[in-house]
Design brief:
With 204 residues, the chain is mainly alpha-helical. The chain has one domain (9-151): Orthogonal Bundle (hpI Integrase, Chain A), CATH 1.10.443.10. Helices cover 57% and strands 4% of the residues. It starts with 9 loop residues before the first helix and ends with a helix.
């Protein structure tokens, strides 16, 4: 069972992404005003897009890091078998917010990295960052916002699953988008939905 301290509520997620967006904008200003590329500032920019896309799609960190631009389609992305946890090809549907994020990142990578973005989406140098490095980055971000240290990148996936159910998406759709092995796995999110938590407050 997934415990409540492993997910973010909507306010926490909004606070985290808002802070990251603010820092992204500051970094972009610094990058555009300097003739030399600054890897630290570029990392902050890519962090914002990486963690935002994970929050909007429920991707696993290893899947997100290994995504290529060729995996992206109009309103869905393809998880290639070689980067999938179960070694099977998967499809993840997304909406206009994610479309906008990916388009913005594509345009920015051409502008600030000075090359066409035909490689890994969340890489600035053609190499894939390690999961451990990105977990460390995430911990730095949640610390900045004052969120519980029990949260991890995988918490974004749990949060996505819970929010999908909160917003009325069917259990089968959420199962398929998260590529769970069964409905039983997806059902673990049901007890964490906002609706159930509000009901218990009303009853007791």
């Amino acid at each position: 069972m997934i415990s409540a301290d492993k997910i973010l509520n909507e306010q926490q997620l909004s606070r985290l992404l808002k802070r990251m967006k603010q820092e992204k904008e500051k970094s972009l200003l610094a990058i555009k005003s300097s003739p030399k590329q600054n890897p630290k500032e570029i990392r902050i920019v890519i962090d914002y897009f990486l963690f935002s896309v994970i929050a909007h799609t429920g991707l696993r960190i290893s899947e997100a890091l290994n995504l290529k631009w060729t995996d992206i389609h109009d309103d869905f992305l393809i998880i290639r078998p070689e980067i999938s946890k179960n070694k099977k090809r998967g499809t993840v549907y997304f909406g206009t917010k994610t479309q906008d994020l990916l388009k913005e990142l594509y345009d920015l990578k051409i502008q600030i990295i000075k090359k066409k973005s035909v490689d890994y989406i969340f890489s600035s140098n053609g190499r894939v960052a390690s999961r451990s490095y990105m977990h460390t980055r995430f911990k730095l971000w949640i610390d900045q916002v004052g969120l519980p240290p029990s949260l991890s990148i995988h918490s974004l996936r749990h949060t996505y699953g819970t929010m999908c159910l909160d917003k009325g998406l069917s259990l089968t759709f959420v199962r398929d988008n998260l590529r769970h092995s069964s409905i039983a796995v997806t059902s673990k999110y049901l007890h964490l939905t906002k609706e159930n938590r509000e009901k218990i407050r009303d009853i007791f």
